[in-house]
Design a protein that fits this description.
- This protein has 200 residues and is α+β, with helices and mostly antiparallel strands.
- Helix content is 57%, strand content 16%.
- The chain has helices spanning 2-11, 23-30, 49-64, 102-106, 124-199, and strands spanning 17-21, 35-40, 71-80, 83-92.
- Strand 1, helix 2 and strand 2 (35-40) form a beta-alpha-beta unit.
Amino acid sequence: KALDAARTKTAEGKNVKFICVGKKGRDAIRKTGFEVLSSYADVMGSFDFSLASGIGKDVVSGYTHKAMDEVTLIYGKFVSVARQVPLVQTLLPVEAAAPATADSAADGTSAQGVSEEYTYEPEVTKLLAEILPRFVNVQIYRGLLDTSASENAARMSAMDNATRNCDEMVGALTLLFNKTRQTSITNELIDIVGGAEALK
């Protein structure tokens, strides 16, 4: 999914760079020829919010200093133990939610606030400068958590399948062993009975 998105952006004439979390993702991207701006290998086994904050700080700094004009987060979204899906989410620029309309009022949501004005303290630019990095950090952390949950779910499913296959194989081999043993015992009894009959 990440490579598809990167190729689409490259076709649009954009220069794509990756920030990779995890060794497998980093190694896969390096083989494609795309530039790895930074990587965080061997962190998915144990991470906390500080990892997301560090990545978020680099991303926001690159965006505000015009080194990046768009930031996309791609991660494995955990849906259930049996289902994980790749998700592509644009982090920056942040897209504003569509304003409420009369149609949304008809389905139970409020259309109020379309023309209302609000006073912000501190002013909007200062408020956004504080909230935006936090928003980015939280979204990155969510992606890390979802990816970790997806990986663990996939591993758990694989282990369940392996255990089930192993149990089936043990059952089949036990049955084969018992049949072979029974055949051997039967043959020995036939030999003993045949020998006894011959002595008569």
